[in-house]
Amino acid sequence: MTVLKTSMRNFFAHKGRMALSAVAVLLSVAFVCGTLVFTDTMNTTFDKLFAATSSDVTVLPKKAKADDTPQNGKPESVPASVLAKARTAKGVKSAEGAVSSMNVTVVNSDNKNMGSTTGAPTIAGNWTKNDLRSMEITSGHAPRGPTEAMVDADTADKHHLKLGDELRTIAVTGDFKAKIVGIASFKVTNPGAAVVYFDTATAQRELLDATGRFTHINLVAAQGVTDATLKQNVTSALDGTGSFKVQTQKENADENREGVGEFMNVIKYAMLGFAGIAFLVGVFLIINTFSMLVAQRTREIGLMRAIGSSRKQVNRSVLVEALLLGVVGSILGVGAGVGIAVGLMKLMSGMGMNLSTADLTVKTTTPAIGLLLGIVVTVLAAYLPARRAGKVSPMAALRDAGTPADGKAGLVRGLIGLVLTGAGAFALYAAATADKAKDGSLVLGAGVVLTLVGFVIVGPLLAGGVVRVISAVLLRAFGPVGRMAERNALRNPRRTGATGAALMIGLALVACLSVVGSSMVASATEELDKSVGADFIVQGNTQRIVPQAEKAMEASPGLEHVTSYKEIEATLTAPDGTSEDSQVTAADPTYADDLRRATTAGELSAAYGKDAMSLGSDYATKHGVKVGDTMTVAFKGGETAKLKVAAITDDDTSIDQGARYLSLATMEKYVPASEIPSNTIMFAKAEKGQEKEAYAALKKSMEPYPQYQVRDQTDFKQELKDQIGQLLNMVYGLLALAIIVAVLGVVNTLALSVVERTREIGLIRAIGLSRRQLRRMIRMESVVIALFGALLGLGLGMGWGTTAQKLLALEGLNVLDIPWPTIIAVFVGSAFVGLFAALIPAFRAGRMNVLNAIATE
């Protein structure tokens, strides 16, 4: 009980000093809890949606998949006779056929795409009774004929659609127009999909290019009949041949959820990874806080020891303080996490993914995880300072000798740090010289961890030399004030090292990702310049190119040729007997000019001959295939062909790596016309001297199809740069949390350092140092510490990034590009971070009463 009282008294006596550490814990816990609440809420939203849209039992084509985009653009379907048979099953209350397709684009009268900008699909289909489970008509009526359509209310609100407006639907079977006669609202949250309904006959004709066919059959169970029983009865009614996929409501919802779940897991674990980085940075802040508090309470600890407190009790007293800090910070963090989740939901809603706070999901495990992490991390971080507190000698403390410096421990620490850093450097070298990217990536991970830990441990040793160099460049010009700032930064190398290490971690990751991102752009740009001969590239974000858009492109004036590029699923069997499911690329012979692929054997143009194909060098080496050998290719939806290997392409590239080419004529010989896929991408070459005119004409020709982008090589390079830049900016935004925690560490270190040097500050003020000079001294000290951390972090990050690029070179990204403007900007920005972190400590130091400061013990 005495230990608890002492801890409580010390905690509240130093509550101001604990505040920043509590904020660090709060931010880290909030990010973890916010991530969990946000992803759980998204899962809840999708769960409710899929449960509401799934009937009791659903009958689908055998090959249908929830996330499957048909290669020919037409969804798999079943004949109307299946609906008739299903109706006869025992326990069926009602049955209806449904049509649904996600391979469509809907545009308004201004030719603007009505689809989502967040990646959510545009869904077109027929209006059925099953839709009443999730939708209700709030305006107008359901479509009754070929010229009528109904849209969801979210899409109508977003694009200002109203009854009577005309929509054009672009499908693989052609374009058709319809006027809006109804608007339906979701009863559950719509995550952002755009939904358009037609009458059944129109949906069958325009989406499936057939009559009397459905993409699925919805069945409602009679009262007292379970979904499982109905599934069994329906399967029997359909002759039990296994020609169809029969699913209960739960099975259908689970399959729909599976694809979304993979995407959500990527988001969840990526965000938790950044939260982990913030926790790691927070550890240094907490260690520094308690180390300085222990040092400042040396005499108090000595008195406690002198009156009978054991080492264990002193140790326990510090750990109880840490426990209180962890509890307070974690509880506030859990609450803030819910706020962060709501903020993320609002942000996503603003971007087009609608998420309702009515679905806000806070599982009982979320606060438990947040509290456990926050408390455990805080207590573990405080363990070393607590252990040092327990070692304080009563007599040394009473003489105000402070915590004894352990030179031997510092030497051992330095040696361990150097050994780990050396081992990490060797691992990075081994990764950079690896023969296979997969093997090298594991070694790279080990090298990153070892060098990071090594730099953290060896930081106090590096602080002396690095701080002196930085000070010689920046501080000497400020005379005695600059020299005092330098000495203050060098006074406690362990503290400076720990404070700088917190900033080092975040900046190392920034530098590493900057090098990798810049190298990817430079490599891809070089590869495009070297390999791409086409003048123009046309493709969509997710959809294949519909035939009518292909015709518009081919009819565009000023083009020397247009190249089709179709990917079709197939099973490849090598001469050694091994088989694998893969894709082959069928293209026009002009593709050999549009993409100048290097070959290790044969000529790529020969692969576009009769019953011929090419293979990538990696596949050929793995299976011992050489030019002249025969491959067995079983086309999906078509026949099995024996194709001669006419060329082996070099896989030392980032474009079309591993692609297997054959001619369109060869594919058409073995695949029926109904199964031939739409183009994934198309290329074009302008007539000589007509590049500018052909580009303008091609853009005009493709205007009716806004889902596709027309780019020349300059556009393509810029978009690649923009995409990588956007990804890096998002990552930098997440890393900002770690930087913020690191800044709090600098603020806390300076604030506690000012308290620790109260008497010293009073004395130097008494002998003539002005308030302005004092504030400048503290700001300079902060800048030096920040630049120390930045220098270590940027150097370490560039080492990681360079090694990562060497591994990526094995995948065709051969150019190392150091983004010096970014590196320099981050380094200079770190100086401003130091200045910002010193504002409050410097202001408080300047306001100190000189006489009171001198009288402080």
From TrEMBL:
Topology versus the membrane: Multi-pass membrane protein
Q: Which InterPro entries match?
A: ABC3_permease_C, MacB_PCD, Macrolide_Exporter_MacB
MacB-like periplasmic core domain residues: 19-236, 499-695
Positions of the ABC3 transporter permease C-terminal domain: 274-394, 734-849
According to the UniProt record, one GO cellular component term is: plasma membrane
Tell me one GO molecular function of this protein. Answer: transmembrane transporter activity
Keywords (A to Z) from UniProt: Cell membrane, Membrane, Transmembrane, Transmembrane helix
Location in the cell reads: Cell membrane
Residue ranges spanning the membrane: these are: 269-295, 318-345, 365-386, 411-432, 444-475, 496-516, 730-755, 780-800, 820-843
Q: Which Pfam families match?
A: FtsX, MacB_PCD
The cross-references to PANTHER family, in alphabetical order and at most eight, read: ABC TRANSPORTER PERMEASE YTRF (PTHR30572:SF4), MEMBRANE COMPONENT OF TRANSPORTER-RELATED (PTHR30572)
Similarity comment text for this entry = Belongs to the ABC-4 integral membrane protein family.
Q: What is this protein called?
A: FtsX-like permease family protein
